[in-house]
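Bumping with the actual sequence this time:
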Amino acid sequence: MAPPSLLTVPQPGQRTRGLRRFGTHARLAPPNAAQTSLVASCAEGSGEARMTFANLYRSPPGPAGVRRVDESLLWIAFRDTPGLLRFQAKTLLERYGSPAAIFGRPQGELRLHCASRSAIALARGPSLEPARGELGRVRKLGLEVLLPGRPGYPPLLWQLADPPLVLYCRGALPSGPMLSVVGSRRPSARGREVTRGFTGAAARAGVVIVSGLAYGIDAAAHQGALDAGGPTVAVLASGLDRPSPAGNRRLARRILEGGGAWLSEYPPGDAARAYRFPERNRLISGLSPLSLIVEARERSGSLWTARHAAEQNREVAVVPGPVDTDHCRGSNRLLYDGAIPILEAEELIVRVLGDNALMCGSRPAAPKVSGDAGRVLARLRDATQDPDQLSRQLALPPARLASILLELELEGLVTRDGTRIALGPRAYDARPAE
């Protein structure tokens, strides 16, 4: 019997099993007199039925004109509506246009698009005190609030069935084509170097690298982009005041210094929780048209990113790995299920940039390699090697091999991982000498 497909889109009930919906902690405050009056007038079909809840927050006209409640407050309060799921929120927004146009509408009308609990809360109006506290912390930390339909909010994210209603950003969110890269937290040296090489080449071609700041492949993806002088985006499963994991906070600072950004849908103070990583992964895949998987085990969290990408009608690509190792079994299975195999950095760039890839002329010249050096690189493409093994397999004297390895290391074509030799970041651009 054929193994189950890892790219199969989960059924609605299956997809959310074990995941806690974000934003259910808002209090259901009793309506005040003005809110009750407005809801009653709407229910009676009076001339004020076309009013929205935004009218309740107008200050008396003055020299500065009419003032309203901060739009961010209404979005935060809307996100935290009890029982409101993200796909229901998107349906309401597509129908009415904004939270200001949703709050205060008749319960019966709202029940057509969400549960009774949510409809009651929306009809009563927003609970602004928790939203004010959250927005105050956001501004104190110097974070930017990104709202759907407003400048800075990534358009590709609104295409999701369950888009984030509020995004928090630290740094400058880069513009331009993006590539999502995820993989094992405990990769091989080969996996790290392949990732750095591919993301470095993509960054030099003008592609923005997106990943999750986790140990392993995520960190290598960010490092490859930064080493090539390109920006990168870290999507976090926690608030931006506590980037995780703690061991990658130096890398997180490098991302900001390199012109990149941190992005999260969770407010300051929220810690990373296990159920949030699959939720976060839908944003990693949602930010780009293609997700690249490097070395994923059969139960790897990276497979969530692949499933999300398939559900979002985005492409999934995989760097093939050895079939006799556990840390590539999940990613190799994706190839069996129809993912795109990526063998060269150029293939990846063309997949992301399309015809524009031909216009990217800023990449440095590919290094040339001599006969013996080429044989060494060819052997290392299969797996990392011990120098003694290389010497025996290639019939090269140890002194000659040491000289070749030193030359290749200076060119960035190989790197040392303890006592073993692996391909370096530039090895995937190397070509035989004429």
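The tokens above came from a reply further down the thread. The chain has three domains: 29-56+68-126, 168-359, 368-432.
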